[in-house]
Amino acid sequence: MPPSQPYAIAVDLGGTNLRVAAINADFEKLEARSQATQVSEGAAAAVDKLCRCIEEIIARLGPPLGIGIAFPGQVERESGRIRIAANLPGWAGFELRSTLAARLPYPIRLEHDGTAAAIGEFWRGAGVGSDSMAMLTLGTGVGSAMIINRRIWRGKDGGAPELGHVGVDYNGRNCGCGGRGCLESYVSAPGIAVLARRHFGETPVTARRLAELALAGHRGALAVWDEMAAILAAGLAGWINLLDLPLYVIGGGVSRSWPVFEPRLRRELEQRSFRYRRGQTRVVRSRLEEAGLTGAAALIVSPALEDFPAPVSTARE
User: Fold this and answer.
1) pTM exceeds 0.85 for this model
2) Which of 69, 162, 196, 287 is the one with CA 20 to 30 A from 123?
C-alpha cells in the first residue's frame, strides 16, 4: 500500500553491508532491506544489488521524492564519480550517480558517510540543540565530519575531513588509503580485530565478540579495548585541541561497545587534551542506531544544510 505521505529512499552503502530504507519526513522507517556488500564482486555487482533493493521498495510504496546515499569515501559531488574509497578496492573512478540514474529516474544525492551520519545526528540525535559539532564513525572504516554554525565544512575538493587517515603511529600499519599508521587501522572494526591477535593469537575475534567478552570480565578482551581507547583518544585529542568545538559524537557499529571503552577514552582525553580538561567539551555516543541512514534520508526530506564556501586553491610561489 502506498504511504500516506511522501518518502525518501535512504541508502547506507558500507564496506560490509548495504542497507536501504524508505523513510518519511517524520523519519519513520516504512520499509527496509539489507544485503552483504561483497566487495570482492566489484562495484557494478554491488550497485546492481542496491538497485534491486530500491526497485522492490518502490514497487510496494510508489515513487519516492528522491534517493539519498551515504558512501564510505570521497565522491565528486557534481559528477557523482567516486574519487577515493579506501575500504572498497576497485571502486575509484566508478560512475556511481550515472549508473544509478540509468535505472532509477529520481533525484539522487550522494554524501560521504561520515557527513551523512553527522547530518542525521544534527537533525534527530545527539546534535539536536547544537549549532556546531564533529562526528566520528567507527565501523569497517572510520568516517568523520564537521558542522560549524549549521554549515557543513568541506575541503577545497568538496570532500569531508578524514580523521581516520590522520597518522597516530609514524611507523605503523599500512592502510588502505596508501598511508601508514592511520587511526582507522587501529580503531575500526577490522583494526580492533588485529589488536586482538596479541591476546588471542590467530584465532579470529570480531569487535562484537570482544565487547561481549569484556563485559563478562575477560582480561584479554578488556586489554584490547583499553588499547583501542588509548589510540582513539590520541587521535580525538588532537582534533579537540585543533577545532575547539563544543560537541564530538562517536557513532558507527563499534560505538555499540561504548560502555566498554568509554572509561579509558575519557581518562586518556583528560591527559591528552587541555581543552577537554576544561570541562566545556562534550564527547558522547551517537543517539541514533542508524545515523547514516537517517542522514541519507535527511538529504531528501529535510532543509539542506549549507556548505562553507570552499577554500580557494592558489598556486605555490
Assistant:
1) yes
2) 162
